[in-house]
Amino acid sequence: MPELPEVEAYRRLAESALDRPILAVDAPDPWYLKGGADARTVTAALKGRRFTAARRIGKLLLLDTDTDTDTDTDLDTDTDGAGPTLGLRFGMTGRLIVDGIPGVDALLYSSNADRPEWDRFGVRLAGGRLTIRDPRRLGGVELDPDETLLGPDAWSAGVADLRAALGGSAAPLKARLLDQARIAGIGNLIADEVLWRSGLDPARPVV
Question: Do 37 and 76 fall within a single domain?
Fold first, then answer.
């Protein structure tokens, strides 16, 4: 299933989609659009722009866009003039594919078949395409997701961040590690591996 390492691989792959004009948006699955977005609003927000940066916080992939004066709308909320940010979540079975190249070759707990009916969201770019393929529809796409809802990224979190994430709670240790608002990016597989290697009981209270 996609966890932090897989989404980091997707982020690196998404860099190949930067600085290419967005020609169209394909959103055939309304369920996959979150935060009140629909195909029309996402298309209006993205068409004519370019992705300028591929970022990641935990398991959330963020694609920033530039300002396009021809399609500039009130969806642009950044005071620095940047366009909207596209947030991509992959759930358990989502994979990112850019120009026919998958970010990871295979997921352990998902079908990795190339079936077009599993393409939940796509962006047609000059010279190619960015697609999310998700058999179980557990991921989602959102415009301008609230990044403040996530804790520090587990990839770069230090001892102080971990102490703050775990402190002040009698919750089970594993549950606290999985709380994305405390520390972002640790999923079930990573939590199990970390606790096993540390010799710690997942059910023990944090404090």
Answer: yes
Contact 58, 184 (CB under 8 A): yes
Q: Which pTM was predicted?
A: 0.89
- Same domain? For 22 and 68 the reply is yes
Q: Which strand (E) or helix (H) includes residue 8?
A: helix 4-14
C-alpha 39/C-alpha 24 separation (Å) is: 11
Which helix (H) or strand (E) element contains residue 126? none
The values of phi and psi at residue 191, to 5°, are -60, -45
Domain of residue 158 covers 150-198
141-151 tens-digit pLDDT: 999 999 999 99
Interatomic CA distance for residues 23 and 53, integer angstroms: 18
Do both 123 and 141 map to the same domain? Answer: yes
| Residue 105: both structure tokens together | 């070759």
Which residues does 203 contact at the CB level (< 8 Å), separation at least 6? 172, 173, 174
pLDDT at 76: 45
**Euclidean distance between CA atoms 89 and 59, whole angstroms:** 7
The number of folded domains in the chain is 2
Q: Is 201 exposed, middle or buried (0-12, 13-18, 19+ CB in 10 A)?
A: exposed
Q: Cα separations (Å) of 176 from 18, 77, 150, 158?
A: 35, 33, 13, 16
Which residue, 159, 157, 190, is CA-closest to 4? 190
Pairing of strands 85-89, 95-98: unpaired
- DSSP letter, residue 143: E
Query: Does 170 reside within a domain?
Result: yes
